[in-house]
Amino acid sequence: MGTREASHAGSWYEGDPEELSSQLDEFLDRVPATLDDSSLPIPGARVVIAPHAGYLYSGPCAAWAYKALNLRSAKRVFILGPSHTYYLRGCALTTFDKYETPFGDLVVDKATTAKLRQTGRFSDMPKRHEVDEHSLEMHIPYLWKRLEQTFGDDSTKYPSIVPILVGNASEQEEKSFGQLLSQYLEDPETAWIVSSDFCHWGSRFKYRPKLLDGVIRDLDKPKASGAGYESLPVTPNSTKMVENPAKPQTHEVIAVLDQMAMDAVESGAHSEFYKVIRETHNTVCGRHPIGVMMAALEAVAEDGSEKGKGKFSFVQYQRSSLVKEDWDSSVSYASAYAIV
């Protein structure tokens, strides 16, 4: 069915392969040689969460996830991302044979996508929307770079990819998809990339919550209108982000929101993450891909995984700007890994 073109090359990231390679090398070189008392890549770290904005914004943060990701045994890489280009309920599969990068093409695992399609649980991504979608594409050049570092220049040795868009889903639907995908997560020759930015704050995102009296409240949605909400009281760990609780800066409130979400992810409890997102309304665009991945990790853990495995650890957090004024905006980026 053809090759999905690298539609964002030359705009969201460098289109020239030499310039792109140099840029990615620079980002990766900034990451320390060790994380969490382990050399990189981290043994067993087959799952990562990484952002998907333009590389000038999120590339340095994404490098922390990619340098932690262990691809040495990988023969297949799943990429889960949210849909920004059309409304999607549930999950959708690619119909393309390959994904283009400025470096070369990565081959789609058609056998796996065919098997998933046979379950009747997946739709197909409309081609025009898949080409426009950036949440999957932004990881392909980074993945190529890490595969090149792992396997050398012979791209025939590179693992195939399984791109999946994860759309709107209830808590139970996320859990169901996670259980379905857990059979692949158990395979030690399969790696996973979960694509997500974190808080999108600002009027253009219709999300400008404030921190008042220890509670996150969205002042743009007053309770009198029936559309307002309050979050969970902020957690002690997240309040460390605030220098002056009596008058918190907006960028500190954003950090509190994201810390609450990251704490929930690190808890390993899919239900806890779903609850925090529901009650804070944090605009984590990849909340459903993260939810599906957490549910898959839980399903594998129930089968008796070793202690310390199957939970995400965040290693980097950044924001596109430190918001101080209500007219400003910001997008947050976070990187995490999980050992399976």
UniProtKB/TrEMBL annotation:
<comment type="similarity">
    <text>Belongs to the MEMO1 family.</text>
</comment>
<dbReference type="InterPro" id="IPR002737">
    <property type="entry name" value="MEMO1_fam"/>
</dbReference>
<protein>
    <submittedName>
        <fullName>UPF0103-domain-containing protein</fullName>
    </submittedName>
</protein>
<dbReference type="Pfam" id="PF01875">
    <property type="entry name" value="Memo"/>
</dbReference>
